[in-house]
Every structure is written in C-alpha cells, then in structure tokens.
Design goal:
By secondary structure, this protein is an alpha/beta fold. It contains 9 helices and 7 strands. Helix content is 43%, strand content 20%. The chain binds S-adenosylmethionine.
Length: 220
Amino acid sequence: MLSKRLHAVYKFIEERSIISDVGTDHAKLPCFVVSSGLSSKAYAIDIKEGPLLQALKTIEAQALQDKVIPILSDGISHLPSDCNAVTICGLGWLTCEDILMNDIQSLYKLDYVIVQLNKDYHLLRKWISDHHFTIVDEEIIYDGHYYIIIKFNTDYHESYSDLQILLGPVLMQKRTPLFIEYLEYLLLNLKEIIVNVPNDSEVYNNMQKEIQIICSILGK
Ligand SMILES: C[S@@+](CC[C@H](N)C(=O)[O-])C[C@H]1O[C@@H](n2cnc3c(N)ncnc32)[C@H](O)[C@@H]1O
C-alpha cells in the first residue's frame, strides 16, 4: 500500500510512462506503478547501497524483478534511454536541486517530471520559472502535514509571477477547499512568527507582503 503522499504522486503518472523514481529508497512507488498495471516497467534509482537493498527487498517481495529495475546512480545523470518521466519524492529542496542540475539536459528528453518536496515549494517553482519550464499540474494533500506535488515539463513558459511562485499557478486556479485551508494555516503561521521579527528588516517586509497577498486571496 502506498501512503497518501505517494499515492498523490502516483495519480500524476501517465499510463504507460516508464518512470525513473530518483531517491527511491524503498521503491514503493515504482513497484506500485507496475503492480497496479499503470505501466509495464519502472526504474528505482538511489545513490546509496543501503536504500537500494531496501528497494530490492520490496521488488523481490512482489516478484517484480523483471519489471522494476534498481539502479545505483547519482540523480538523473544516467537515466535509461527508454525512461520518459522522472519522479523525485520526499527530499529537501537543496538535494532536489542538485539532482535536477546534475544533468539538466536530460530533462529535455523527458515528457514530464513530478516533484514532491516536504517544504520550500516556492523554491522549486522559482527554479522552474527561471528555466522557463511549464508547471502542468499541482496538487495539495494533507497526510499529517500539507504536501504539494508539482508536475512540470520543459516546454517554454514565460516567467511566473511572484504570486504564482509563492502559491502555485495551478493550485490558485483549482482553489480547492484544502488549498484554502492551507492558506489559512500559512496565514496563522506567518502571524505567529512575524511578532518576533524586527519590523525594520527585509524578512519582516517580505512576511508582511505574504500576509497581504494571502489575505487578499482569502478576501480578508
Ligand atoms: C527520504 S528518502 C525518500 C524515499 C522515497 N522517495 C519517498 O518519498 O518515500 C530519500 C532518498 O534519496 C536518496 N538520494 C539522495 N540524494 C540522491 C541522489 N543524488 N541520487 C539518487 N538518490 C539520492 C537517499 O539515499 C534516500 O534513499
């Protein structure tokens, strides 16, 4: 069984895609992609031997050795030639950025990339915007913590606005009840933190701006 978080990532994967799950650890996602019949093959990539052994255990337990291939490799630098999409889940932004930058050219050969960070979603959107890539979908879920899943491709897109980078162009369009709940949560957090920030600092001004933006979206 997949966690709610990984299931949300799974829902963004297109039928018959051959994914490489980078930073796979236990390989639950690529195994589910294949066992559910969404795709006939998947790759499970990790930089460390320990996690890759975990991956192998999951693969063997489900008798998927012919269909889920574990690869010991750093990021996206050696993607198999038949892989057309990448998933990167459960990582911090700095590691994710390293992975995306370690062979950025290989992204152009993919149909899409799905990233699920644990926080700092705006930093990923800023990176996508700076590279003029396109955010094709976004989803927010709650699984003991708000998680945002971002799907992008390398099609040209003009830079996203600061507001879109902060809150997500697709999430803002979808405006689901959970997104509104998330905005209320962000607002509460910002208001709690800002009281301890010197009011002549840049951090304070940025937080004030964020509060104003969120209030305007919430109609407050
Ligand atoms: C927190 S686990 C995430 C596991 C799984 N993706 C999930 O979401 O549940 C992160 C994994 O990423 C792997 N990792 C970190 N940097 C990597 C890199 N440059 N290339 C491949 N794997 C990497 C780590 O070894 C670790 O197993």
